[in-house]
UniProtKB/TrEMBL annotation:
GO cellular component, one term: plasma membrane
GO function term, MF aspect, one: ATP binding
Name listed for the protein in its UniProt record: ABC transporter ATP-binding protein
Gene3D superfamilies: P-loop containing nucleotide triphosphate hydrolases
Chain ranges of the ABC transporter domain: 47-272
Disordered as annotated region, ranges: 1-38
Transmembrane segments: none
Organism: Streptomyces cadmiisoli
Record's keyword terms, sorted: ATP-binding, Nucleotide-binding, Plasmid, Transport
Family annotation (InterPro entries): AAA+_ATPase, ABC_transporter-like_ATP-bd, ABC_transporter-like_CS, ABC_transpr_LolD-like, MacB-like_ATP-bd, P-loop_NTPase
Pfam families to which the protein is assigned, alphabetical: ABC_tran
Length: 273
């Protein structure tokens, strides 16, 4: 999928409006954060997959009955060999794709109960994406790339730009807001993509091989940034082939042939909360 980031944005057309009415809002009545009046605890479930199966035409079972719960404040690695189902899992977690069987709940909303429009609204409100190949708009400045991600947020333009600048500052690019992607290094482009993903303060940040296209120093800087964002409270799932990187994270979910074969948590100095 080369155009996922863009599709995610395009899908969100009208999302700001649907988020305020219809089933998403009714579902919000059972949203723990809404009920608790923003006093949600660290045990708040951000995403829950139950018995998730994904079959493709031609008999490919990309996922075969995955149960996975992600709670607020987690930083987890999704690891496994090529073709094991990691990206499929991330797409389903991110509501870009629906499972063939099983249920997906995001921030208390059962995705299967929602229309495509409502799912787009849910995604725009709660989920940020980062991809290996950045998916920035080449003709747009760093700031415009970031504010594009807020277009369906319902925020006024001035507020979107204020948040965009703050997000770029957060990723260390305050002095690059007017640069277009071609004038940025790969690591800087990925930091713009991360700024775009977090500018809307999503409940869940999903990253598919975010360091895969970067040299090791830039990759390390991107991972440090993800650690910092997590320390600030972001809930993050990262797909990675990098064993060392995976082992530096507080939780590792190992996928093999579409199944979770290992799910381990450990204490990481300065990491897990
Ligand atoms: N649109 C599709 N149609 C048919 N089969 C697909 C489709 N997308 C993925 N698959 C298959 O599903 C399986 C899981 O693919 P997925 O992309 O999730 O693997 P992955 O673990 O992310 O691999 P990689 O590490 O190479 O990115 C693979 O066998 C793949 O060929
Ligand atoms: Mg993949």
């Amino acid at each position: 999928m080369t155009d996922t980031g863009h599709a995610a944005n395009a899908d969100a057309v009208g999302g700001g409006a649907t988020a305020r009415d219809g089933a998403v809002d009714r579902a919000a009545e059972s949203d723990p954060e809404v009920l608790a009046g923003h006093t949600a605890t660290s045990a708040e479930v951000v995403a829950e997959l139950t018995g998730v199966t994904k079959e493709y035409p031609g008999g490919v079972t990309a996922l075969g009955g995955v149960d996975l719960t992600v709670t607020a404040g987690e930083l987890l690695a999704i690891v496994g060999p090529s073709g094991s189902g990691k990206s499929t899992l991330l797409h389903i977690l991110g509501t870009l794709d629906r499972p063939t069987a099983g249920t997906v709940a995001i921030a208390g909303h059962t995705v299967g109960d929602l229309s495509d429009r409502q799912v787009s609204a849910l995604r725009a409100r709660h989920i940020g994406f980062v991809f290996q190949s950045f998916h920035l708009v080449p003709a747009a400045t760093a700031l415009d790339n970031v504010t594009e991600g807020l277009r369906y947020s319902g925020l006024a333009r001035a507020e979107r730009r204020r948040r965009g600048r703050a997000a770029l500052e957060r990723v260390g690019l305050a002095d690059r807001v007017g640069h277009r992607p071609h004038a940025l290094s790969g690591g800087q482009q990925q930091r713009v993509a991360i700024a775009r993903a977090v500018a809307g303060r999503p409940k869940l940040l999903l990253a598919d091989e975010p360091t895969g296209a970067l040299d090791s120093a830039s990759g390390k800087a991107v991972m440090e940034l993800l650690h910092e964002l997590n320390a600030d409270g972001a809930t993050i799932a990262v797909i990675t082939h990098d064993r060392e990187l995976a082992e530096s994270l507080p939780r590792q979910v190992r996928i093999l042939d579409g199944r979770v074969v290992e799910d381990t948590r450990r204490r990481v100095p300065g990491g897990a909360r």
